[in-house]
Amino acid sequence: MKTLRRAAEIRDLRRLARRRLPHAIFEFIDGGAGREITLRANEDDFARIGLSPRVGVDVATRRTRRDIVGFDSALPVMLAPTGLAGLYWPQGEQAAARAARRAGVPFCLSTNSVASIEEVSAAATGADLWFQYYFLKDEGLTDRMLARARAHGYRVLCITLDLPVQGRRHRDVRNAFVVPPKVTLPTVLDALRRPSWVAGYLRHGVSFGNFETHQLGGGFSTIAQHIASLCDAGADWETVRRIAEKWGGPWVVKGVLHPEDARIAVGLGASAVVVSNHGGRQLDGVPSAISALPAIAAAVEGRAQVLLDGGVRRGTDVLKALALGADACMIGRAFLWGLAAAGEAGVDKTLALLGDEIDNALALLGVPDVAAIGPQILTPGGAPDFSAKMRDPA
Ligand SMILES: Cc1cc2nc3c(=O)[nH]c(=O)nc-3n(C[C@H](O)[C@H](O)[C@H](O)COP(=O)(O)O)c2cc1C
């Protein structure tokens, strides 16, 4: 596809996704909670960190490989768990998992995927698969889901902690976004301008593939209703301990912004802590992920890995996160835009862009191996003082 070949950066993939997706679905991906202060800060704070290159270094051979929770990843990058990927492109989870396998990076399947645990593992044999778990009210369902994930080769359990209830996402309220999408005059008029998406949707439809029909209650529901009916807001660290024990393999916690929570997770045996504010989709006004990272990396003290997501849009963002103490980054929207724009080839493009940008930046920074990235690549003083500037533009 010519347009895909001409995409110079991830932002171009977002533009293509916007053209192909119905408005409400594009906004579901794009949007955040509240006034989207945190959503904007996730990207803006990366832009405020300066890089300090060295010259006169042999950079003829460069290395981008990095261990991510025991997997030798081709890049310090993996695909974040994202719900409903199959709504953005037919069989979107399978496409993304295959693209991750091709690029040699891990893929994390969401509890709220369209494709099931079984369908994704069958479509992407040999990929490094992780399974993301939301605390469910139904203990039997939890046991079955974890057993299915284990039996189908998912290696790491990613326990997401920052969604006891869903954040208040104004765009979704204004767009009356429900699953399955409702047929109304405005949605039909909008869909008529998006024939490629409609054709895929009519062939494949949408459902929450990891749940059985009777558990979903039938009919249309907002994502907030779906979460409220199935997820357990009563879960705590004791629940984390119990889930980790049931799982029996490597596990990570996702959604940590406070150093003390990172310490607790490490004390319970987490292999990694994911510094994340859910892409600005939960509580508006919390710190950007990159600004929360240094204190958490300091609290973890190398006893577990530290991953980061939120606002990662280019290779230099990944290197800035590594410089401030992360081992790797997860990407959410960056791959969903590629997926929505062009399916599997679009996710290939996202990962190729990030890989090329990381490689290019290593050469231009004078640090040929990603393993040697540290605070030395930042302008003197390292990260700016992030605390001063969160503001509501009204
Ligand atoms: C459309 C969408 C759906 C998401 N669904 C989930 C999910 O099901 N489980 C989860 O743990 N995080 C979910 N997230 C959060 C991502 O895992 C990740 O934290 C976030 O996208 C990172 O920010 P970024 O999009 O700026 O990269 C979702 C994010 C988006 C954009």
Features:
394 residues; alpha/beta; TIM Barrel; eight-stranded parallel sheet; two-stranded antiparallel ribbon; 18 helices; 10% strand; globular; binds flavin mononucleotide
Q: Mind sketching the topology for me?
A:
Layout: H1 2-5, H2 10-20, H3 23-30, H4 37-47, E1 66-68, E2 71-73, E3 77-79, H5 85-88, H6 92-103, E4 107-109, H7 117-123, E5 129-133, H8 139-151, E6 156-160, H9 170-174, H10 185-192, H11 195-204, H12 213-216, H13 223-230, H14 237-247, E7 251-256, H15 259-267, E8 272-275, H16 289-300, E9 305-308, H17 315-323, E10 328-331, H18 333-365
Parallel strand pairs: 3-10, 4-5, 5-6, 6-7, 7-8, 8-9, 9-10
Antiparallel strand pairs: 1-2
Helix pairs in contact: 2-18, 6-7, 6-18, 15-16, 17-18
Bound molecules: flavin mononucleotide (FMN).
In short:
This protein has 394 residues and is an alpha/beta fold. It has helices at residues 2-5, 10-20, 23-30, 37-47, 85-88, 92-103, 117-123, 139-151, 170-174, 185-192, 195-204, 213-216, 223-230, 237-247, 259-267, 289-300, 315-323, 333-365, and strands spanning 66-68, 71-73, 77-79, 107-109, 129-133, 156-160, 251-256, 272-275, 305-308, 328-331.
